[in-house]
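Reopening this ticket.

The earlier resolution said the output was attached, but the attachment link was broken on my side. Pasting everything inline this time so it's all in one place.
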Amino acid sequence: DDDDDDVVSQSDDMISDDSDARSVASSTTGAVAAGGDTSPGDDCTPPLAASLASNSRTLTHRRARDHDHVTRLVGNQALRLFTDDLSAVSQLVSALPPCHVPVAIALKHTLPPLLHRRSDKICLQLADVLRDKYHLCTHMRNIQRYFLMESGSVMHHFASGIFDQIRRGEDWLRATSLNAVLQESLAYGNDFDAVSSLLTIDVVRQAKSASGRTRLRPSAKLMTTETAHGFDCLALHYRVEWPVDIVIDDSLMDGLNSIFRFLLHLKYAKWSLDNCFWRDTAFSSLSGRSRVYKLAFLLRLKLLHVVNAMHSYIMTRILHSIGKEFLESLEQAQDVDSLIECFRSYVHWILDRCLLNKEASFVREAVLKLLRQAVLFRQVCDGNLQDASLEKITALMDECDKCHTFLVNIFNGIIRRGVFPHLEALALSLAWRS
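Inline output:
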């Protein structure tokens, strides 16, 4: 602003100097015209002409100096405008008519917005085709019903059929018998015709166990006493066609099978405790064995408390709540990449919450050990509780207390560090007063 004021003042001085020079020149010209030839005695003497010439040269010099100064000030101001407000220059270029803008700049400023709008519209249409025409959401709900056992009547019949075969000591680890039980169980649902051809179960020689280790298929004789190895060899298959398999790929199905096998362990422990009965409960006739029965009742209650807490936490707080959020996000996805990422995040989230990741392997081993204690206790009761020794029941009680104390301390430590706040409800439900 100060430079602009200097330019204006100097321009006014130049204008005043020019007017003075013109007035002097006009007076001299008038005098010469009135008096004719000038003489040494007249007013217009040679010194006056010399003074007029000197004034003219001075004015010319000042005019040139002021012109250079004004040019320099204007140039500096233009340079500051260019460096300080480069965005204004780009806006000016973009506002020019197309004939004045280079082709590369015109394409850069006009094509990307059009392409992005068109791409977003096409991606949304592709996601809608997967959801509507190829029934992606229906496939996801089927996965929740059968892999995550949310279909209570169907999966309860399927699991109970397998557990009964194990209890009777039958060779249950065969694909044909397992598929027969599965198809019979699907008939209890409302979508048998739509699902029966898509869902099968197989016995794989190598499979990831619930603890994350690779196990070989055990023999049927081993399966009558150690069911954990058998569950780890089961794999549920859900057949999907292209293009649905873009979202539901094999790697994520492996993660879902890990969750399915872990749920089988949990439900088998719960089923074992629910179907644990004594052959003779007449304490009055067995006064000498009353301590064994009392310890057996107490052990069953402790195991039921822990197993039911784990079952309620996983089936309700994890699978049900996260499943609802997953279906909502699936409906709101705007493109295929969002659908894939939504399903991947859902599977990995459940794996973390169910302690099936590598970081929680030591906690998972303690949980599985506690579940195996429930199965062993049911086997003792199925034999004959009257013949069971006090030392065997006491050993099972001590092992249960150790695993329970370990889990409670681990969960409380994790909660205090703030790593997994979702485990707070599980830790509170597992605790009991001694």
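Reporter confirms the inline version is readable. DSSP finds 16 helices and four strands in the chain. The longest helix spans residues 290-332.
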